[in-house]
């Protein structure tokens, strides 16, 4: 590993010996992973070369993600990374940032806005007041938009000091009827894609403006999540959104809608209960 920068807050300095051993073993398998997945020999993942002889610490950070997602089992991590690279080819993920989606539909579904107190980018996902057929009816389009949002978030990561994203899921104005079969199918599909291809990218997930019946949503979602993922959930009712959010995000970076001072075009304060 490259040890020129020895600052204590570098991600690589937090690796334990078992992780280092697993990273070295998985790195040695990269030529086989590249061959089996079908990606080009000079392929880069999130801008980082998958060269087994690379001294780039960022590669080690990425490999650790796949290892941790498989409890440091090198063979399972190898399988996961291979399948993920295959998916990127099939889904055309590497060109997805250049795609465009109707702003009139998706601007009100989610966006990335600034960062939290740990310099992690924050993704806001909005569920209230949506036309489910309009948003989720074309499932392939919705999934491509959602993957693009994830890839946009990753553009804000340096894999040196920051390698995770904070998410906010806002259920303001969501009724029990809103979570219909179309929404459930889309939710299940997104969870599967994220879990299989973006391991250990979630730092924390805030569920805010949760209605009294929100327990039904969590029970459904939880069926498809690992215990480790669920441990990253923080739930806030409509009465303590600002308190919850300002504990994690400076007011200057928090949208006005949640009690902060940052203005998000098209996202007005009256849309959210604070």
From TrEMBL:
InterPro entries, from UniProt?
Answer: CRAL-TRIO_dom, CRAL-TRIO_dom_sf, CRAL/TRIO_N_dom, CRAL/TRIO_N_dom_sf, PATL
Family annotation (Pfam families): CRAL_TRIO, CRAL_TRIO_N
Record PROSITE patterns: CRAL_TRIO
GO cellular component terms given for this protein: membrane
Q: Which UniProt keywords apply?
A: Membrane, Transport
**Molecular function per GO:** lipid binding
**Stretches assigned to the CRAL-TRIO domain:** 93-266
**Superkingdom of this protein's organism:** Eukaryota
- Localization (cell): Membrane
Where does it primarily localize?
membrane
Give the protein name, as stated in the record.
11982_t:CDS:1
Question: Species lineage, top-down?
Answer: Eukaryota, Fungi, Fungi incertae sedis, Mucoromycota, Glomeromycotina
């Amino acid at each position: 590993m490259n040890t020129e920068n020895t600052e204590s807050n570098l991600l690589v300095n937090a690796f334990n010996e078992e992780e280092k051993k697993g990273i070295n073993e998985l790195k040695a398998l990269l030529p086989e992973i590249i061959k089996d997945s079908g990606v080009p020999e000079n392929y880069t993942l999130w801008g980082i070369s998958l060269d087994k002889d690379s001294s780039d610490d960022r590669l080690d950070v990425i490999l650790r993600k796949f290892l941790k997602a498989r409890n440091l089992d090198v063979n399972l991590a190898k399988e996961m990374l291979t399948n993920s690279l295959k998916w990127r080819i099939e889904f055309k993920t590497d060109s997805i940032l250049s795609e465009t989606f109707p702003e009139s539909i998706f601007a009100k579904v989610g966006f990335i806005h600034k960062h939290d107190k740990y310099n992690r980018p924050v993704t806001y996902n909005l569920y209230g007041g949506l036309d489910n057929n309009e948003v989720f009816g074309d499932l392939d389009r919705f999934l491509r938009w959602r993957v693009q949002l994830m890839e946009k978030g990753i553009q804000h990561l340096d894999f040196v000091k920051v390698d995770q994203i904070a998410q906010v899921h806002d259920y303001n104005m969501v009724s029990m009827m809103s979570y219909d079969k179309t929404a459930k199918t889309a939710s299940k599909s997104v969870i599967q894609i994220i879990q299989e291809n973006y391991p250990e990218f979630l730092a924390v997930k805030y569920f805010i403006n949760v209605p009294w019946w929100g327990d039904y949503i969590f029970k459904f979602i939880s069926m498809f999540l690992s215990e480790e993922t669920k441990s990253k959930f923080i739930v806030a009712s409509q009465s303590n959104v600002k308190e919850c959010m300002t504990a994690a995000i400076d007011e200057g970076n928090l949208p006005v809608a949640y009690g902060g001072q940052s203005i998000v075009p098209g996202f007005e304060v009256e849309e959210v209960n604070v």
